[in-house]
Write a structure and sequence with these properties.
about 240 residues; alpha+beta; Arc Repressor Mutant, subunit A; Muramoyl-pentapeptide Carboxypeptidase, domain 2; four-stranded antiparallel sheet; 7 strands; about 15% strand
Length: about 240
Amino acid sequence: MLNKSEVFKALSSDSRWEILNALTDEPKDINEIADRVGLKAITVRHHLSSLTQTGLVEPLPERKGGVGRPTTVYRITGDNIRVSFPQRDYFLLNQIIVGGLLSILGSEATKEIHLRVAVKAGFDLLENTASENGLERWTLDSFRRLFVEGLLGEMGTKPEVVSQSEDELIFQERNCLFFELVKTNPELICNALDKGFHDGVVKALGPDFEGERLNCMGHGDPYCRYKILWNRPSGADST
C-alpha cells in the first residue's frame, strides 16, 4: 500500500507530475523521459528515484537489441491513492451500490440499468456540449475538438487521436476512470457503463454517425480505443 505522506511529498514537484504524465502512454527510459519533459537526464534520474521509492513508478529491464546490459525503462505501477481530509471513500460506496444491485436484481438486470443510465449520460453530455457551444450539427472535427480533446481531456482519461480522415476518427484513452471497479467486474463496467456511455455519445452525434469500441483496458488491452464513422452528407463541410 502506498504511504500517503511519502506520496504527497513526491508529488509536491511539478516536474514529477510531468514525468508521470510522460509515462502514461508507455514505459520509457531516462533519455526518452528527459526529451519528453525537457529536463536533463540526471535531473530525471533524481525524480525517478523519489517516484520509485514511493511506489508510483517501477523500473523494468528491457534489452534493445544486441548484447550487453539491458536498458532500464520505467512505468507507472497503477497503484491508486485517494486524497481527502477528513477521510472519504467513494470507491467503497460504489462497491456497496454495485454489490447491492447485483445481489438484489441479479447480473442481467443490473447490467441493463447501468447500460440505460450510461446511454442517457453520454447523450445528455454531448447534447449539452453542443448547446453550450452553439453547435447545430456535429462533424468529426468538432467532435475531436470538443469531446475527445476537450471533455475527455478534462475528465482525465488521457485521450489521444490515433488517426483521422474525412469520414473516420480513431481515438484512444490511456486512463480508465473506473479501473479499480473494472478489476472486480469488467462485464458490468466495460460492457454496460462504458459501452452505454459511448453509445449515448454516438446517438447524440446524429444518424449520420456510427461508433465502435476496438480495444478495452478492462479486457487486457493497454488502452481503450474507439472508432467513429461519419456518413457525411453530400456537400457537408468537414469543420
